[in-house]
Amino acid sequence: MERIKTLETRSLCEKKGGCGECQTSCQSACKTSCGVANQKCENSDRK
Amino acid sequence: MVHQYVLNGFHIVVDTCSGAVHVVDEVAYDIIALFENDTEEDITRKILSKYAGRPDVTEAEVRQCVADVRALKESGRLFTEDRFAPIAGTLKERSGDVVKALCLHVAHTCNLNCSYCFASQGKYHGERALMSFEVGKQALDFLIASSGERHNLEVDFFGGEPLMNFGVVKQLVAYAREREKECGKHFRFTLTTNGMLIDDDVIDFANRECDNVVLSLDGRKEIHDALRVDYAGRGSYDTVVPKFQRLVEKRGGKRYYMRGTFTHLNPDFTKDLFHMADLGFTELSMEPVVCAPGDPAALTPEDIEIVKEQYEILAAWMLRRKKEGRPITFYHYMLDLKNGPCVYKRLSGCGSGTEYMAVTPWGDLYPCHQFVGEEKYRMGNVWEGVTNTALREEFRACNVYAREECRECWARLYCSGGCAANALHATGSIRGVYRAGCELFKKRIECAIMMQAAEQLGEENETADR
Questions:
Q1: CA–CA min distance B214, chain A (Å)
Q2: How far apart are CA B90 and CA B112, in angstroms?
Q3: Does A37 sit within 8 Å of B101, measured CB to CB?
């Protein structure tokens, strides 16, 4: 039986990205407790 | 490194360094917990002993599951080695001295007198002041000149209450729109407001020009009015709620956040989020108060435990609402596992003091809005640029791997080291760790990942292993 289901995720091992066009974390809503995980990637082509 | 937890009936395994997330049954959950330290023989023996009464847990099944775990490890989706530590320090060097976002403090004054305000009623422990157009214009010129190849530039109108200087805000946006065409840039504006001065003119402007509007509402009337009062001590709820509703309705219900602060008064803050939803708001953010430990509004260790439970309640409520076709967005649960930030973003952090800075009404530069008013953190000004280059280097070197305690944290690539200002205020160093903030952050990410599991696997799986 299938005991492990793997969700579809972006692999962090792929060294793509770094264009810097995404939003600065604190500009969006929190202003006091930022993280980065909930930020959108602006580079859909993943160059 | 893997992180395992059980939440809302899901057994979840997060592989920190690949970002892979696995939803497993309890047998696989136990096998993964044993995998790195035990032999296959030992694992098989222990699992068969623990699940002796379970007909579905046979030796062949257990060995198959061990093989599956091994295959995941070999394919880089479990127990992935950390290869980021050596490069973390060099990433910010790559972007040079680029600045791409400014928080413009257009008004160091406020028409409300909220006792918990980290900006001390907008004054940031200094004099009341409004930013002139000339200072703001110079800030925009500084941003354009410092932005290198970056196309998207972000400007947040902040305060105090920025609408107390609305004329200058409008002038600055008009100036930026003029300059962006000739410079090949695109400005994204955010307006953060307490709502007191919202009228049709503001609504039309905000909905035409601002990519994002952040509206301050703490939730239930009695909670909001306890702290968000005017200088006569009158609550502001009845004034601002109809204005917010009108703005959001005319905005089409998108590209805004209803942003609240919860304090010692309301660690049960989900009731405030439920209230916001009842008012018709769907894009929500609720943040723990930032204040000195002795402040009456400060969250106590007991509050932190309540808040962690509240995050679970919130996640379950949001899943129910989504199923009912009435989805709510919560800022900290906006996790996109498939298209989220690249690893460079995750290693670089929030950008304070490097690509993001705050500008005071007098044109001084600070690493971010939370450092404004702390003289030793003044970086320069919008005419001369960054003159305290040693301070910029300190912030450049401040990444998640620069913090000893973060190096072994499973959530390090979700949080990226967290907020430098919170770290400073809690520990005296921007490289410190604000422990209460960490606890809450990890709980939020656990909830957000669980929600992704529920959504990706669907209803059938949601109850399968509960």
A1: 6
A2: 43
A3: no
- Asked if B340's CB is within 8 angstroms of A39's CB, the reply is yes
Alpha helices (H) along B349-434: 389-396, 412-415, 420-427
Residue of A1, A10, A36 for testing the chain B interface, max B β-carbons within 10 Å? A36
Q: Are B108 and B361 in contact (CB under 8 A)?
A: yes
Taking the C-alpha atoms of residue B384 and residue B392, their distance in angstroms, rounded to an integer, is 14
Query: In this predicted model, what pLDDT tens digit does every residue of B267-301 receive, in sequence order?
Result: 999 999 999 999 999 999 999 998 888 889 999 99
Mark out the alpha helices in B18-84 (DSSP H runs): 26-35, 40-50, 59-74
Which of B342, B372, B416, B446 should be substituted to probe chain A, the one whose Cβ sees the most A Cβ atoms within 10 Å?
B342
Q: Which two tokens stand for residue B292?
A: 């000195």
pLDDT tens across B89-134, in order? 777 677 789 999 999 999 999 999 998 898 888 889 899 999 999 9
- Residue holding tokens 């306890």? B226
Kindly give, in sequence order, each residue whose CB lies less than 8 Å from that of residue B375, ignoring residues fewer than 6 positions away: none
Token pair belonging to B259:
């942003």
Q: CA of A34 to nearest chain B CA: how many angstroms apart?
A: 6
